[in-house]
């Protein structure tokens, strides 16, 4: 009898320990017989209604690591996100204090039901810079990434891994120039293609190593537009999905169908959006931002299986971004980080509402948030800590209303929103 009581005690203790552990929730992508893709989390369909999250306070810049912020701004932001129906956040880099990252993922999930998409720049903005043709750089990057994977893979609030962002723009030297003697020996026209092959092969090797460690979270490659994806299709067969960055105005102009025709992988919009400043009229314009985001999101939804599109290949999207960032116009000049600059930094004709601005510069990097930051008011995050007060914009409320009307499971038949009937003037 004494022996039986000992065994029972051991089993009870073991059961208590196991029940207290946090187990990651499986996220898998299922394919329909019609060739459509749907993401499932805990065996339930999951449409990614996300935002990119970089909560830098007024006065902070590119080197701010929000995971280390004892004020925990996400305790305010997570509540607002939940109220709007946002179910996931994309973080550009989790290469920080991994225990702090775990705390963030856990609190966002446990308090607000919000999942985290953990990304990595793959050295794009690091010093002395990325060189994907360098075996030593590849080795060090793999080791660093796999360390992150091992540390975070068991977190319940983790949704997926995202590799890169706009790294394909380095092929032409537009950003982050890299090369090798072998590449330089090629004809100029061949160098770009050679770089693309090197980079995408590296991605695929990294994906295979990740999957040896983590078998329950999708691994995604994020790419600037559809550029070079024809080469990626031949060299990245092991990725689970594509993340595409696209700034095409109100519409994505056939992006989903086109990519499906030559690289049939599920995809989501890993970065898209519209700023809330009219560079032509030189005034804030929250209404236009809201209209653009609703138009973009309507196309995302209609390209997903949730709309009844049986062969839908879109899993959702993460809007750029949650809050405005006041440092981005003059990122190297710290005194300017306390000023909400109105100057545009680049041009995009797809945002035709204000492209008539001087020199056609109409994209205002500091105004992309769907929530503004107050320079005059603070609010409590927790305890005695205060952060810049969040001021949700028109787009926030428009998306909140839109998300509330979306179905929670894929529809059996295609539902196309009906336009409002116009009433004739008497």
Provide the fold topology.
Blueprint: H1 2-20, E1 27-31, E2 37-41, E3 44-45, E4 48-52, H2 74-84, E5 88-91, H3 98-112, E6 115-120, H4 135-152, E7 158-163, H5 181-184, H6 188-213, E8 219-224, H7 229-235, E9 241-245, H8 255-262, E10 267-272, E11 277-278, E12 283-284, H9 286-302, E13 314-319, E14 371-382, E15 385-392, H10 394-405
Parallel strand pairs: 4-5, 4-13, 5-6, 6-7, 7-8, 8-9, 9-10, 10-13
Antiparallel strand pairs: 1-2, 2-3, 11-12, 14-15
Helix pairs in contact: 2-3, 4-6, 9-10
How would you describe the overall organization of this protein?
The protein is of the alpha/beta class and 426 residues long. It has a single domain (29-405), classed as Alpha-Beta Barrel (TIM Barrel), CATH 3.20.20.80. The chain has ten helices and 15 strands. An eight-stranded parallel β-barrel has the order 4-5-6-7-8-9-10-13, surrounded by four helices. A three-stranded antiparallel beta sheet has the order 1-2-3, with no helix packed on it. Helix 2 packs parallel to helix 3, helix 4 (135-152) packs parallel to helix 6 and helix 9 packs parallel to helix 10 (394-405). It is globular and about 55 Å long. The model is unreliable at 1-21 and 418-426 (pLDDT under 50).
């Amino acid at each position: 009898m004494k022996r039986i009581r000992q065994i029972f005690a051991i089993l009870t203790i073991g059961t208590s320990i196991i029940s207290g552990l946090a187990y990651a929730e499986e996220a898998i992508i299922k394919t329909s017989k019609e060739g459509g893709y749907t993401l499932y989390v805990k065996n339930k369909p999951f449409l990614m209604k996300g935002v990119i999250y970089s909560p830098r306070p007024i006065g902070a810049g590119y080197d701010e690591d929000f995971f280390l912020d004892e004020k925990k701004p996400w305790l305010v932001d997570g509540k607002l996100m939940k109220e709007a129906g946002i179910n996931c956040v994309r973080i550009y880099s989790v290469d920080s204090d991994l225990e702090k990252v775990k705390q963030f993922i856990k609190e966002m999930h446990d308090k607000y039901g919000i999942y985290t998409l953990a990304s990595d720049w793959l050295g794009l903005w690091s010093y002395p810079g990325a060189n994907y043709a360098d075996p030593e750089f590849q080795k060090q990057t793999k080791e660093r990434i796999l360390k992150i994977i091992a540390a975070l893979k068991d977190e319940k609030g983790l949704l997926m891994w995202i590799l890169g962002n706009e790294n394909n723009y380095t092929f032409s030297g537009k950003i982050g120039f890299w090369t090798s003697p072998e590449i330089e020996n090629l004809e100029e026209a061949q160098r770009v293609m050679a770089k693309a092959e090197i980079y995408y092969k590296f991605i695929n090797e990294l994906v295979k190593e990740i999957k040896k460690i983590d078998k329950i979270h999708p691994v995604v490659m994020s790419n600037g537009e559809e550029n070079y994806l024809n080469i990626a299709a031949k060299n990245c067969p092991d990725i689970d999905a594509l993340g595409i960055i696209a700034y095409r105005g109100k519409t994505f102009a056939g992006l989903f169908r086109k990519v499906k025709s030559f690289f049939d992988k599920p995809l989501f919009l890993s970065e898209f959006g519209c700023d809330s400043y009219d560079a032509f009229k030189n005034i804030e314009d929250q209404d236009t931002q809201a209209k653009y985001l609703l138009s973009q999101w309507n196309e995302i939804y209609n390209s997903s299986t949730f709309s009844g599109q049986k062969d839908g290949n879109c899993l959702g999207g993460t809007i750029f971004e949650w809050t405005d960032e006041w440092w981005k116009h003059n990122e190297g000049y710290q005194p300017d980080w306390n000023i909400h600059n109105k100057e545009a930094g680049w041009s995009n004709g797809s945002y035709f509402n204000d492209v008539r601005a001087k020199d056609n510069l109409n994209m205002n990097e500091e105004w992309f948030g769907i929530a503004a930051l107050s320079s005059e008011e603070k609010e409590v995050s927790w305890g005695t800590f205060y952060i810049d007060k969040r001021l949700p914009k028109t787009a926030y409320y428009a998306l909140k209303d839109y998300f509330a009307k979306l179905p929670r499971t894929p529809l059996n038949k295609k539902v196309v929103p009906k336009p409002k009937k116009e009433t004739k003037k008497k």
